[in-house]
Specification:
The protein is α+β, with helices and mostly antiparallel strands and about 160 residues long. It is built from eight helices and five strands, in the order E-H-H-E-H-H-E-E-H-H-H-H-E. Strand 3 and strand 4 form a beta hairpin.
């Protein structure tokens, strides 16, 4: 299957409770919460927009935080990466995402750079699919942007799960 990224609405109070991963798993099962799923494109989107793989979060960078969250909840040695973003930071991220001209990033897209940096998912040798990959990146960015805008309007925090 592979690793996918999900973003879901939560509250600042709930984020503080998520120091225990059992609580996170329970929250993830709540079907009433808003969810954004960008599938497998999380690492590719992070690399395209920051120049760094997702394994190297860019501290203080709103774009990196949009994809990876503001602070780690899961710790270092787990199969599932869980992080959170407080509601005040969600508002800052939403504003930053609104200002982005994503086509400038797409214009610089180079599959060889992704392959050379071992960016997930490992699809960079499929030169005949470059247009579809660009469309997937656009769709992932747009979904994430809309999700953060909605969370900012609702004054929600965000829980990030990559598993």
């Amino acid at each position: 299957m592979g690793m996918i990224a999900n973003y879901q609405s939560t509250t600042d109070t709930e984020l503080e409770k998520f120091k225990c991963l059992d609580d996170v798993e329970e929250a993830q099962e709540n079907e009433d919460l808003e969810i954004c799923d960008i599938g497998k494109m999380w690492d590719a989107l992070h690399f395209l927009m920051t120049g760094k793989p997702a394994s190297v979060p860019v501290e203080g960078d709103l774009i990196s935080e949009a994809i990876l969250g503001q602070f780690n909840i899961s710790g270092e040695d787990v199969e599932e990466f869980i992080s959170g973003t407080r509601s005040n930071r969600v508002k800052e991220i939403a504003k930053a995402l609104q200002k982005i001209d994503f086509e400038k990033y797409i214009d610089k897209f180079n599959m060889r750079n992704f392959a050379k940096n071992d960016i997930y998912p490992n699809i960079w040798e499929y030169d005949d699919e470059v247009d579809e990959i660009k469309d997937d990146l656009r769709d992932s960015f747009e979904s994430l942007r809309k999700f953060y805008e909605k969370m900012a309007e609702q004054e929600s925090a965000v829980l990030v799960s990559i598993y």
